[in-house]
TrEMBL record, chain A:
Protein name (record): Syntaxin-41
Species this chain originates from: Porphyridium purpureum (Red alga)
GO CC term (a single one): Golgi membrane
Record Pfam families: SNARE
Molecular function as annotated in GO: SNAP receptor activity; SNARE binding
Source superkingdom: Eukaryota
TrEMBL record, chain B:
Domain of life, per lineage: Eukaryota
Family the entry assigns: Belongs to the STXBP/unc-18/SEC1 family.
Name of the protein described by the UniProt record: Vacuolar protein sorting-associated protein 45
Positions of transmembrane segments: none
Protein's GO biological process: vesicle-mediated transport
Record-linked Pfam families: Sec1
Length: 371, 618
């Protein structure tokens, strides 16, 4: 909404500052070289003095002693730094980042597909002639629904896999080199937290998508049913079945899908063999039960506490950031103190024990010497 | 709603502007603003996977090179220094810097110099430098009420509204004058910020029509020391008075036996429909409404519909479960809050205290009041703080009465304080302090309506004719009267002079007046003057602005917010049918005017007493 962009001013100033720095550095280096060349001939010494000198110079010039640190970092780490930071991280990008990119691509694809599907639904629901056209449309719809189901499932697996990649960013890459001395536990916790929120973020998006898909399909079915009812035609059970199956097997495990498939086949077989009215009815009822169970399984799996959290303190950013931070800091402090306490007590008791033991031994010695 | 939404929109624009996985770096103030407008889950779905507070990082802190950082902080020197350090040893892939207010050029230079790795992608200023607590209530989250913070906050608020306002202030208050002068300079300096705000399309979403400059009216708390001293009986105000609302959250810690889950609860009118409907209901109505809510809830409990018979039932049950759990926690929250309020009311005999308080605020009867105040002071079971408040009210009301002798009351208070908790004892000395803070000499308005014979007569007439609907909510804050005068174009330009003419000015007067009530039309004849006010009566011709921002120096109260909401036409917010609020609301409706209340912080009586003590000590 209301922004004032000051990037151009910033960029200009930064350019000036860099140019100034560069000029300054060149000048000081030249000076150094001259001075050290004048002063000493020894290689080692000149190098050292140059380093120190330039450090002092920088300090005097800008009162920024970090500049030097950065210089060294630049020279040892990144080639062509100051350009695109992507270069430096491109190779070492941990797997989860790649997975995220994939997921993002997948999701936008699915989003498109769902839009497409809805368009197809609308077309199909329009009254029209030509039985064959209708059939082709149905075929298309089913195919698309199947594709969406598949991509949703793979996406879900990817999200799950994200959880397993906790330590991936630690395994390689130069980030390790830079902060090798940072406490590992903190690192791990931080990266885990980030991964978790990434997982949640994608999970939520995925959930929204699958919900969207599901409702689209349900809506379509309902309208189809309504249409057929109006026309006096019984709902094409098989068609309904097919559409439903796609919506429902989205998040089912493979085994249950197979079970569903075989179940369906046997139902069909029975239906075919006897051809009796009531068996058909039975079959349909069994189908209904299976649908319900599938729906239930799906829902159970999908049931997230996202809705519950909304509107409570847990969903407040400031609370999350500030309060949690404070409480963790306090907890850490307490733990430290407890640990110190603990150790001290150990030490003290140890000393007391040993002193006592020494005393006893001394007594024994004395007694032994006396008698 | 306007500022709430514009803050949210600005935030979303900011977040969506960055690609890929994002980290958000905030400071304490912006975190609070963020918390008010955007839920965490929403941030998460925008691929913000890391939120942190800008602090000095230890050497060798972890690098998060795969995250794009969005930095949203106030442009304080400390923050700029921290950012410089951060940029010198960058942890994120790149940085989008966004400051919540105007950034000085010097700071831009510092940042430019520090950015040796050239990780900064953009540098922007957005104007989120305030806390949009409610629809028309803005706080700056600054209980000390510093002038600089107020200037920054009001500037940001006005930039968000895209208009340079006309500024009027209370002439008798030095604090108001200072703020007004500083703001006038600021508006001149930063006029470029407002330049894109002239098209009406931008205002379509904010509900502000026309191109007249809004009005910024700067008032002082000192004018009305009564409102924050009263016990409140509407839901929101009560919660703040008895439990304390901070940034729309209430801590229930230490009260009764609450589960961890409910130790801190959120009171947000956006996500909590019951609260939105009932924040202005009085305590009695609230009880009834709450009962209805509980009844409704228990009837929609899934298992109340009979046994789960088949899978469809179970399916429905599971489908409804999250929603059900959510409304369950909402119901629990309100039941807890209400029962805690009711417990405190009973234990402190607050009904009795409040009756006297309201009477003191609204009616003149010195001898009778003195007797009652003495009774309250000696009564057991009433908290010392409440006794102090009653005495303070008495001292304020009868300050200029020749027979007013407070020594008796002070002795009574000291006797009561002898056996009381140590914390509140300090308040006993405030009897002199309150006069120094907000005595009659400091006030020019007529908060008790007892300065002139006419005002007295009018008050007693009104009371006689209309009667009193509810003795616990008969008081109306002075703000209602001020706004009523303002909306009816009666507010004196002598006591509330114009210090700054806003953009647009009064030139549109004749055209924009079709919607005004006949009464106001009579007083507004054609074009008005512009420029600083040379003489008071020349300004009676002025137009009433439709977009009004009231800045209360020294804190506002939820009762005043209720008044403002009432004027804005929120149903149920008007308590006194024949009062100033109702009358102002009527004009506001015909003018389509909208009032926003802004202040450095929202007061309750404890905070106010503390503030009085601080000022009196200086």
């Amino acid at each position: 909404m209301v922004f004032r962009d000051r990037t151009s001013l910033f960029l200009r100033l930064r350019g000036e500052a860099r140019a100034y720095d560069a000029a300054r550095r060149v000048a000081t280096q030249k000076q150094q070289r001259q001075r050290s060349a004048l002063r000493v001939g020894g290689h080692e010494y000149s190098a050292v003095s140059q380093g120190q000198g330039s450090r002092r110079d920088h300090h005097d010039a800008h009162n920024d002693d970090f500049l030097i640190e950065m210089d060294s970092l630049e020279s040892d780490g990144r080639s062509g730094s100051g350009g695109d930071p992507l270069d430096s991280t491109g190779d070492a990008a941990p797997e989860w980042v790649r997975t995220c990119d994939e997921l993002r691509a997948d999701m936008s694809h699915v989003r498109e597909q769902i839009a497409q599907l809805q368009a197809l639904h609308n077309v199909h629901l329009l009254p029209g002639f030509g039985e064959e056209d209708k059939l082709i449309e149905e075929e298309n719809i089913n195919q698309l629904a199947g594709e969406i189901t598949r991509s949703l499932r793979t996406s879900e697996q990817k999200v799950k896999r994200l959880g397993g990649l906790y330590l991936a960013p630690n395994s390689s890459g130069r980030s390790d080199v830079v902060d090798g001395h940072a406490p590992a536990s903190d690192d791990e916790r931080a990266s885990r937290a980030i991964l978790e929120s990434v997982q949640k973020s994608f999970g939520a998006q995925l959930q929204v998508l699958s919900m969207q898909f599901r409702t689209a399909q349900k809506e379509y079915l309902k309208q189809l049913q309504g249409q057929k009812a109006v026309l006096g035609i019984g709902v094409d059970a098989e068609e309904q079945e097919r559409a439903l199956r796609h919506t429902q097997t989205v998040f089912l495990d493979d085994t249950s899908t197979q079970f569903r498939e075989t179940d369906f086949v046997t139902v069909q077989a029975v239906e075919h063999d006897t051809g009796e009215e009531y068996v058909q009815q039975r079959a349909r009822e069994i189908d209904k039960v299976v649908h319900s169970i599938n729906d239930l399984a799906y829902l159970m799996k999908d049931l997230s506490n996202l809705v519950e959290v909304q509107g409570t303190i847990l969903d407040r950013v400031d609370y999350n950031v500030l309060a949690v931070r404070e409480s963790t800091q306090n907890a850490v402090k307490e733990l430290r103190r407890a640990e110190r306490h603990h150790r001290k007590r150990h030490g003290v008791s140890c000393i007391i024990c040993l002193t006592l033991a020494c005393g006893v031994m001394a007594l024994i010695l004395v007694f032994k010497w006396l008698f | 709603m306007a500022h709430h939404d514009s803050v949210r929109n600005a935030l979303r624009t900011l977040i969506r502007g960055a690609p890929g996985l994002k980290a958000l770096v905030v400071d304490r103030d912006t975190a609070a603003t963020l918390g008010l407008v955007e839920p965490y889950s929403q941030l998460m779905s925008e691929e913000v996977c890391h939120v942190e507070v800008l602090v000095a990082q230890p050497a060798g802190a972890r690098q998060l090179l795969h995250l794009h950082a969005i930095v949203l902080v106030r442009p304080t020197e400390q923050n700029v220094a921290l950012l410089c350090a951060e940029l010198a040893a960058p942890r994120f892939r790149d940085y989008q810097l966004c400051f919540a207010n105007v950034l000085r050029r010097l700071a831009v230079e510092q940042l430019a110099e520090a950015d040796v790795h050239e990780r900064v992608v953009s540098l922007r200023e957005s104007f989120l430098d305030f806390l949009p607590l409610r629809k028309s209530l803005v706080s700056l989250g600054d209980p000390l009420g510093s002038l600089d913070r107020a200037v920054d906050g009001v500037l940001a608020l006005m930039v968000m509204r895209r208009r340079i306002p006309q500024v009027r202030y209370d002439r008798n208050s030095a604090a108001c004058r200072n703020l007004a002068e500083r703001l006038a300079v600021k508006f001149d300096q930063e006029s470029s910020l407002f330049q894109d705000g002239t098209s009406d399309a931008m205002n379509a979403g904010t509900g502000i029509v026309g191109s007249r400059a809004p009005l910024l009216l700067i008032l002082d708390r000192v004018e009305d020391p009564v409102t924050p001293l009263l016990n409140q009986w509407t839901y929101e105000a009560m919660i703040h008075e008895l439990l304390g609302i901070q940034n729309n959250t209430v801590s229930l810690k230490g009260s009764m036996d609450v589960k961890d889950e409910f130790e801190q609860v959120v009171l947000d009118a956006e996500s909590d429909e019951f609260f939105a409907r009932n924040m202005f209901s009085n305590f009695g109505d609230l009880g009834a409404n709450l009962k209805e809510l509980v009844d409704n809830f228990s009837s929609q409990r899934p298992d109340a519909q009979g046994h789960v018979r088949d899978l469809d039932d179970m399916l429905r049950l599971v489908e409804e479960l999250p929603e059900f759990r959510r409304s369950s926690s909402n119901v629990t929250k309100h039941v807890l809050l209400t029962s805690e309020l009711s417990r405190r009311v009973d234990s402190g005999s607050l009904l009795r205290v409040s009756q006297l308080e309201q009477d003191l605020a609204c009616r003149e009867s010195e001898a009778e009041h003195r007797k009652q105040v003495l009774q309250i002071c000696s009564a057991p079971g009433i908290a010392l703080k409440d006794k102090v408040r009653v005495v303070l009210l008495f001292a304020l009301r009868y300050e200029q009465s020749p027979t007013c002798n407070l020594s008796e009351l002070k002795i009574a208070l000291q006797r009561a304080a002898a056996g009381s908790a140590s914390e509140d004892v300090a308040f006993v000395d405030l009897v002199a302090g309150i006069r120094r803070y907000a005595g009659a000499a400091k006030r020019h308005g007529d908060v008790f309506s007892n300065r002139s014979f006419l005002a007295k007569a009018a008050t007693s007439m009104r009371r006689g004719i209309h009667g009193i609907e509810n003795i616990y909510t008969q008081h109306e804050p002075l703000l209602a009267q001020t706004l009523d005068d303002l909306l009816r174009a009666r507010l004196s330009y002598e006591t509330y002079p114009v210090i700054y003419e806003g953009s647009g000015g009064a030139l549109h007067a004749s055209g924009a007046f079709s919607g005004a009530s006949a009464q106001t039309l009579g007083s507004a004849r054609g074009a008005a003057l512009s420029g600083p006010p040379p003489r008071a009566d020349a300004h009676t011709d002025r137009v009433v602005p439709r977009d009004i921002v009231v800045m209360m120096v020294g804190g506002c109260c939820y009762e005043e917010y209720r008044t403002v909401s009432g004027i804005n036409g929120v149903a149920g917010a008007v308590m006194v049918e024949s009062g100033h609020t109702a009358s102002a609301a009527q004009v506001a409706r015909s003018l389509q005017a909208h009032v926003v209340l802004a202040s450095s912080h929202v007061l309750n009586s404890s905070m106010f007493l503390e503030q009085v003590r601080r000022v009196a000590q200086q």
